[in-house]
Amino acid sequence: MLEALFSNVPLMIVTTGALVGIAASLVGTFLVLRTQSMLSDAISHSIVFGIVVVWLVTRQQSGPVQIVGAALTGVLTVFLTELLAGTRRVKADAAIGLVFPVLFSIGVLLLNLYARDVHIDAHMVLLGEIGFVWLDTVTLGGLAVPQSLVWMGAMTLVNLAFVVLFYKELKLATFDAALATALGFAPVALFYGLLLLTSATAVAAFDAVGAVLFIAFVIVPPSAAYLLTDRLWLMIVYAALIATASSAAGYFLAVLLDVSIGGMMAVMTGVFLALAFLFGPRYGLIAQRMRRRGQALANECRTLAVHLYNHEGGDEQDEENVARALGEHLRWDAARARRVLVRSLDRGHIVRDGELLRLTPKGRAVAREILEPWRLEGGESAARS
Amino acid sequence: MLAFLGDYTIQNVAIGAALLGIISGVLGCFAVLRKQSLLGDTLSHAALPGVCLGFIVAGARDLGAILTGALATGALAALVVLALTRNSRLKTDAALGIALSLFFAVGIVLLTYIQRLGNAAQGGLDSFLFGQAAAILRGDLWVMGGITLVAVALVAALWKELKLVTFDPVFAASLGLPVLALEVVLTVMIALAVVVGLQMVGVVLMAAMVIAPAVAARQWTGRLESMVVLSALIGMAAGVFGALVSALNRGLATGPLIVLAVSALVLVSLLVAPGRGLLWEAVRHRRAARNLKSQQVLTTLYRLAAHHGAAGYRSEQGSLDTYHGLHTRRALARLAARGLVAPVRHMPQEAVHWRLTPAGVAEAERVLGRLDEERA
Questions:
Q1: Which residues, in sequence order, are bridge partners of residue A143?
Q2: Closest Cα in chain B, distance from residue A207 (Å)
Q3: Distance between alpha carbon B346 and the CA centroid of its chain, in Å?
Q4: CATH code where residue A344 lies
């Protein structure tokens, strides 16, 4: 039964993709919130250097030595970047863009020189080949399990353990670094721990998705989740769900179109981001537009109430407080005037009295709230004045 | 040597690399000064789907179509970054990373699609990933040269406006300059620079060509005029060097070689550029520390003399060491060389003693007087 599970190639591929996405989202959430997403760009490029060097020294293409060794390069990148920015000769963003190309270049050249015949060639570096994860297997408890799956599973567990163990500290360091320092939580050490895990995850994911597509898994699902929620733990959960869904949808689309599986998975994270960007319940583009329109209409209703209130009981009441006057005195066109009247009637601000528009007590309160805020009964403004 | 320079491929490579150096050097200055270094990174990765689309539309490796495609997707990526930062709660860094990785992913998907088509000409596309200088044709140079000429002419024509927008966009807006339009012009031109570099450096490393020459040039000068010229020269030198090495050793990707060359120039500039160089700063720092130490020892001698009421009071070296908590021998030797203190030996004591010379007294009084002034 288990054997059938592990020899199911599509399932293995989708699971590996999902694990890459989940492990990346766990660390990516904090990078996005700390506005340091581009560090994942730097890290995932420069681990190429580490991977090649470790491979040249140990001839190991994967495994713990490879993960730790190459992951240290990722941290080295960040360290060098901060060192360069610390000289104050170079801005922080330019420093990122100076350091990782150097390490990446050395990695590619070493590949050109020493590794022409092995399976890590320059193409591999960029694309990865998640479609072949089932080729390299290890035997675990009598079962042939894909190697990438094992390492990605391990990285996911390590990242999960890190986030769960240091949840409180990470949260504090992310949202209020100064307070975290003051309370003795060592946010810098925590930050480097996070980057070490990001690099290690990038190395573990390298075989599957390559260096550049990994960036999509780190940044895009957490960003999409960020558009959906304000709660940190929900953001992580949403990001993991989006990554899993992208992995599955990406796999089937890629098979259907016969294109790169890893690439399609990354593209699908983008589709989910676009959906969140458009239809997010609170921060989505459409929700924002609707809210703005609602506010505009509410303002127009207030304007009408104020207008009626100003002329209520006055000499010009019969002339001003009629539907006709809205066009001339408020310069509203017929459609707009009609829309506001309907809405005001719906809300119970006004009632019709023949030709005349009369404010209800509720409508009068709306007008007073604007014209005489100090007379608000028992309100805060009364207390303040 | 002449035969080498006369080689057709070598000529192409050198001219192409020079063009790349000029355009990326000039436009990189604006990107770096406007703190948009990583926009170059995003735009260069985002050129990949455009390269593939151009290839698919043209059906062959037609440079015009490929570069048009690269420019279009690069500009689209810039628009995506703008849309995400303006209309959502995502910050610039996330927007840059999103555009970079997603456009690249689309490019990968398109690349595998093209490979499936099994077109014989597809081999040329790989060179756009890491750059392959030897693949450049004479016809390509005309396209690259044309783009460079347009970009440089545009910078020259809009020089005053671009300079103002770079350093003080608020002031530029208050003068009635179309700031947004100028920023769009700069962004599009960075995309143009990326496009020119595609064949040389490739999409992955083009970011470095935008950033590095400008950063190196910035160390040598504080004026935009000279920075732009210097940056173009540095870009050219690194480009030609890397491209030639690559052309002579087939199998070494051009992009990484150019990037390493230009990065070496950055490192040298950071270390030895006059004024801003880190080496000179270290020297200044050391000199200042030494000077301070000398002054401390000198004033200590002066105060000891004043305390004992004798201008020629002789202080023992050991007591000075104790007083300062470390060895004062070198500071005293320097002071003696300047004639401010003099060693005295008087038997039966064997240890060296030091006393102030009249010049030393004057100097100590000057130092203490200045300290009092500063304190006041």
A1: A140
A2: 16
A3: 60
A4: 1.10.10.10
